[in-house]
Specification:
alpha+beta, 10 helices, 2 domains, Jelly Rolls, 3-stranded antiparallel beta sheet, Arc Repressor Mutant, subunit A, globular
Length: 293
């Protein structure tokens, strides 16, 4: 099936090369998702992820901030970035998810890879192309699609090659990216997502219901009621989960003392931190570090 006249798609088709802990890893997942299985909270991966949306419209939440997306938008997600796709009610939505890692410490190529992967660090890492650029960029993904159905012994090597070309074409055509952050949310929904984005950017501060309601010029009652309605969490729960996600990140990527990490991420007491961490991680901070380091 050809989606939007540019993207090859076959529901439930998938391909995986190695596993996520391997230095060279690819997983291509062509499938559908619906409103009923929207993720409860934002999540992260230890590998890079690309979401290519293949239906009319949806939303993507990145670090608490809402982004409208439509067919053939390319969302680039760096490792350990909190995110989730918010699918609309109705029929399931088609999408392609690409997970990957590849070696970048190749003599002579380090600087090129640094620039290439900087695509994932953009403040708005969403790319929308039109015209000939769109066709040539997606032609590389279509070549990969064909290779994932091939038994050729060289297919893995060729998939790696074509994927590098796919990313390179996005990099070379950055100036032709037409994506603009224009929210289609109602004023009340936009306000809540402004607040969740604020929490993600200020999780290490002493946040409270009264502090946030005053900052955004709304009543405590309205904030408490609307926040739970939109996110599914109370404000306190959302703040705690966001902090725990950042604690997990630091436990995995640094050797900092656990107590220092707790206070650095906004917890006011170690006993409170330990209780909240166990509640959301089902293990102690030290056990989490040992298992995920």
């Amino acid at each position: 099936m050809l989606i939007d006249n540019v993207v090859l798609y076959d529901r439930a088709h998938s391909f995986e090369l190695n596993n996520p802990m391997h230095p060279l890893y690819y997983a291509f997942d062509y499938d559908e998702r619906s409103y009923q299985i929207n993720m409860e909270f934002q999540h992260y991966h230890r590998h890079y992820e690309i979401c290519v949306f293949l239906d009319d419209s949806a939303g993507h939440i990145i670090d608490g901030d809402w982004f409208d997306i439509k067919c053939a938008d390319i969302v680039l997600l760096r490792p350990l970035l909190l995110h989730k796709t918010q699918y609309p009610q109705g029929a399931p939505n088609k999408r392609l998810i690409i997970n990957f890692n590849f070696p970048i410490a190749i003599p002579g190529l380090e600087e090129s890879y640094k620039h290439l992967l900087a695509l994932f660090d953009a403040s708005t890492p969403i790319y929308r192309f039109e015209g000939p650029e769109k066709k040539i960029i997606f032609s590389k993904l279509n070549m990969i699609y064909d290779l994932t159905k091939s038994s050729n012994v060289l297919s893995p090597l060729m998939i790696h090659q074509k994927f590098q070309e796919f990313l390179s074409l996005i990099y070379l055509n950055q100036s032709k990216n037409v994506y603009k952050k224009k929210s289609l949310l109602t004023t009340s929904l936009a306000k809540i997502y402004n607040i969740t984005s604020f929490i993600h950017n200020n999780y290490n501060e002493q946040l409270s219901l009264s502090h946030i309601s005053k900052k955004f010029f709304i009543s405590d009652y309205y904030l408490s009621h609307q926040f739970k309605k939109v996110t599914g969490f109370t404000l306190t729960e959302y703040i705690q989960i966001t902090r725990i996600q950042m604690v997990q990140f630091l436990l995995m990527t640094t050797d900092q003392d656990i107590t220092d990490i707790a206070f650095q991420c906004g917890f006011s007491s170690f006993s409170q931190f330990n209780r909240v961490f166990r509640k959301h991680s089902n293990m102690s901070p030290s056990a989490f570090r040992k298992q995920n380091k």
